[in-house]
Amino acid sequence: MRVFSSRLQWDSQPNPLSILLAEKRRSGAAILDLTESNPTRAGLEYPGGELLAALADSRSLLYDPDPRGLLAAREAVSGYYAQRGVEAPASRILLTASTSEAYSYLFKLLADPGDEILVPRPSYPLFDYLAAMESVRVVQYPLRYDGVWHIDLDALAGAVTPRTRAIVVVNPNNPTGSYLKRTEWERLQSFGLPILSDEVFSDFAFVPGPMRVATLAGQSNALTFSMSGLSKIAGLPQMKLGWIVAGGPGHAAALEGLEWIADTFLSVATPVQWALARTLAASAAVQGQIRQRTRANLEHLLACAAGNPCRCLNTEGGWYAILEMPRIRTEEEWALGLLADSDVLVQPGFFYDFEAEAFLVLSLLTPPAIFAEGVRRILDSAGRPS
Fold this sequence. Notes:
Strand order of the largest sheet: 2-9-8-7-6-3-4-5
CATH architecture of the largest domain: 3-Layer(aba) Sandwich
Number of domains: 2
Number of helices: 13
Oligomer: single chain
């Protein structure tokens, strides 16, 4: 007799890379970790005094919950967008504890069990789990690379069925770093489906791009839900505050439904809401450090890879870079070999559902000295005879 929900029937066995990593660490090996995505462990300098003082607001002692989030906090989010030239009034904003929770709310709002959500491939490998927890089915649509990444709009159109309830775009995508383009956005609006736009890396562009759509938080011809939060824009995942900005036709009714869902959980802590305005103001220094580091690491990687059998794929923003390795080995063989022989930890492309071989994903958030030495060992390995 089954005891637990079928939504929890996932393979919990460790993969070969995690098994080897555990063995290496037990042996005392000095691992060069090029997968670090936690900004609080990346050697950044935080304005600790200001952040901690913001959390000491005496108003946090009173519990007076608002399902959409405290007005002062929503106005702080509105101000964040205003600084970027986007009108997103507090009335269109709903706070969540994270972007993952925002997805959960939106899947509840838009889909019944067995309905379908379209998500990009390659992309962050969390959608399957988030959708399964809501009894929703994920259907992937491809991103293609021809020197730049773009949405295969014809394939996306072919993936739409009567049970499709929404299209997810990650802008810029993780790990490809590709922003949504204006031509893509025009076509997406024509599908007549709600658009869920994950914009947590939107502030981290490497170079300007006039054809990019930085955010969908403004008004549009489609029902849209823009998501972001402190985890990336302030480098503070532990603060547990994100948000949804609803826009387009039907957004008022959507917000009413989201308010009912949020009122069931009331998950956003009061102290972080009162601290939000000061936290966003203080985040500029952390954002600057992250931009400087990711850009410098990317430039170093591009310079080192020139003339090497590896190819660094074009990336427009975000915290990651993709190396295309010689296809003399599989991605898994490359990742395992680099860890076994060179003490370098990277992620293989299939972790992100890359359709072809052989790609490795590197975090540009890695401290520069570790990143440079790790890249050197990767490229040395790629240049050796097999």
